[in-house]
UniProtKB/TrEMBL annotation:
<protein>
    <submittedName>
        <fullName>NUDIX hydrolase</fullName>
    </submittedName>
</protein>
<dbReference type="InterPro" id="IPR020084">
    <property type="entry name" value="NUDIX_hydrolase_CS"/>
</dbReference>
<dbReference type="GO" id="GO:0016787">
    <property type="term" value="F:hydrolase activity"/>
</dbReference>
<dbReference type="Pfam" id="PF00293">
    <property type="entry name" value="NUDIX"/>
</dbReference>
<dbReference type="InterPro" id="IPR015797">
    <property type="entry name" value="NUDIX_hydrolase-like_dom_sf"/>
</dbReference>
<keyword id="KW-0378">Hydrolase</keyword>
<feature type="domain" description="Nudix hydrolase">
    <location>
        <begin position="1"/>
        <end position="128"/>
    </location>
</feature>
<comment type="similarity">
    <text>Belongs to the Nudix hydrolase family.</text>
</comment>
<dbReference type="InterPro" id="IPR000086">
    <property type="entry name" value="NUDIX_hydrolase_dom"/>
</dbReference>
<dbReference type="InterPro" id="IPR020476">
    <property type="entry name" value="Nudix_hydrolase"/>
</dbReference>
């Protein structure tokens, strides 16, 4: 099972969210990536976010724990655990060119309209609609091409 972390960074003064547009599908995501052996989820999210954005997170808070199942013909073919953080304090400036795609500060009210995985839409809505105090725990089932089958 692969473990990944990501973070929704909110600039509250500008009411914007830093997002990464992945080149493969053009989907917008919260920056992050795979955990390394021996890392805590907090260490991983800070390291991955800095690698992808150039920004150092200050006190990210865990807001989502998601099981992601990839299924084909009724059989599980892959499984991930994703730990999603929220942060509104940071140091540094976003990279002009991220190794993972295009970085952009997006107006908070526009995030729901951006193309993204259907499961990502669920947790972005939860977190950005002022329910940041609640820990969201969900299981998503996808096809191998990341079509959402269901979530609970």
């Amino acid at each position: 099972m692969q473990r990944v972390t990501n973070c929704i960074l909110i600039d509250r003064e500008r009411d914007e969210v830093l997002l990464l547009q992945k080149p493969r599908r053009g989907w917008w995501v919260a920056p992050g990536g795979k955990m390394e052996s021996g890392e805590t989820i907090r260490e991983a999210v800070i390291r991955e976010f800095k690698e992808e954005t150039g920004i150092t997170l200050i006190d990210p808070v865990l807001k989502g724990v998601f099981t992601i199942l990839i299924e084909e013909d009724g059989q599980r073919v892959d499984e991930w655990m994703m730990f999603t953080f929220v942060c509104d304090q940071y140091k540094g400036e976003a990279l002009k060119h991220s190794p993972e795609g295009r970085l952009a500060w997006q107006p908070r009210h526009e995030v729901a309209r951006l193309p993204k995985a259907k499961g990502d839409q669920v947790y972005f809505e939860h977190i950005l609609e002022q329910r940041e105090s609640e820990l969201l725990i969900l299981k998503f089932r996808y096809t191998p091409d990341y079509t959402l089958i269901s979530y609970e």
